[in-house]
Amino acid sequence: MVDTRTLAQQHLFPHFTRGEVWRSDNLPVIVRGEGCYLYDESGRRWLDGLAGLFCVNIGHGRSDIPAAAMKQMETLAYWTNWGAAHPAAVEAATTIAELAPGDLDTVFFVNSGSEAVESAIKFIRQYWVGQGKPDKQIIFSREMAYHGTTLGALAVTGIEKYKAPFGQLMPGTRHFPNTIGETIPEGGTAADLPSLKRLVEMIEAEGAENVAAIFAEPVQNSRGALVPPEGYWQELRRIADRYELLLVADEVICAYGRLGEWFGSAKYGVVPDLITFAKGSTSGYAPLGGVLIRGALAQQLMDSPQAGIFTHGATWGGHPVATAVAATNLAALRDERVLDNVRGNEGYFQQQLDAMVAAHPSVREWRGTGYFYAIELTGDRESGRELTEQQSVELVRQVMPQAMREVGLITRPDDRGATMLMLSPPLVSDREVLDDLFRGVDATLAAVDAHVRG
Predict the structure, then answer these.
(1) Is 373:366 a contact under the CB 8 Å cutoff?
(2) 250 by DSSP, 3-state: which?
(3) What percentage of the chain's residues is helix, strand, coil (to nearest 5)?
(4) Residue among 34, 38, 21, 27 nearest 4 (CA)
(5) Which residues contact 213 (CB under 8 A, 6 or more apart)?
(6) Are 355 and 411 in contact (CB under 8 A)?
(7) What was the pLDDT predicted at 308?
(8) Whether this model's pTM surpasses 0.90
(9) 370-399: per-residue pLDDT in tens?
(10) From the record, what ranges are coiled-coil (predicted)?
(11) What count of other Cβ atoms lies within 10 Å of the Cβ of residue 82?
(12) What is the C-alpha separation between 287 and 114, in angstroms, rounded?
């Protein structure tokens, strides 16, 4: 009898996976999840240190969310939001609007984070057409930022190696510096940050009459959990207002508790014009994404004589089962005070990260907040010796994956801009789970130390 791994290798085409990894005898086949742990077909337990792909906020293996999905399937398995509504989508949208900052009270549902970003791009462009300003087309986003895989979202993405295979993408995107290594000068403000000064220069060079929007994540994932300097988001808001641009917070990762608040925007005290979301909205129990829009902007598009309709939609957008799952998931996150767990353990999480820096000479630093972190690696912190390109490849592709297999840890080695280990466990992780996580991280970093020492 052919086993599941062999059938996968024969018939399942993988996402973002190198051929040698997919064809490996070590390819895991995960069959069950419970809490913060996963089990493979051999029965081995793995700690999910990445919450799936930054999404399983409520943890694996719950019974209430599948029950809500089943009830919805029996009641109304499918209907659309094209010229109609249904209770599941209305409940989910209302809950999200109540949790959102400021006047972001209108929700457009799709199926993924990439679709959410794509929808935001289309809304922005059509909005400006409806306002009689069709030349406002250019979108600014940050260098090394990841915003999705569809062609519009990929154009907004600032990672060239992801874009290169696909030739000409959507025109009209520009990238300004991210915040890596930035601090506010003594006596200065966020307006003095080189990245934001460069953004202003670029907007003025293009002409604000040609610029539509700024996209940014509250904490930038790619390049390693870049926490913004104090006042950064308020200054982005001022820049957007000064030049009549829409400000978009891409919260596909950051929303629904990952940073300890319902939305990362709220953590940094800003109300953007649009928020894109996905992952944590359902904790991965069903595919769902969406765009939160300031109500006045949505009404202006609907009421404008040049528009009158958002010329965009998806068959599965606002699917009854997915939105029922979202409503149940968000209620569980709220009623079980899961965000309090994140806030209460954030300091402990960071103490463990400090211990990793102290114990391992290959750790340059850690960055992050809430339950969202990156550990950046180097050749030797004390001497300043950097990793060679070959060492970086070996660490990401061989050393860290092998060490994690040995201890039963799933997390993400990352090479986008630096060599890093990303940590993003389920938000229900308590201190016992965090201790288990850091036992695995400690063993993984010990393998890194040994490898770079030679």
Answers:
(1) yes
(2) strand
(3) 45, 15, 40
(4) 27
(5) 124, 139, 140, 240, 245, 246, 247, 248, 273
(6) no
(7) 82
(8) yes
(9) 999 999 999 999 999 999 999 999 999 999
(10) none
(11) 10
(12) 12
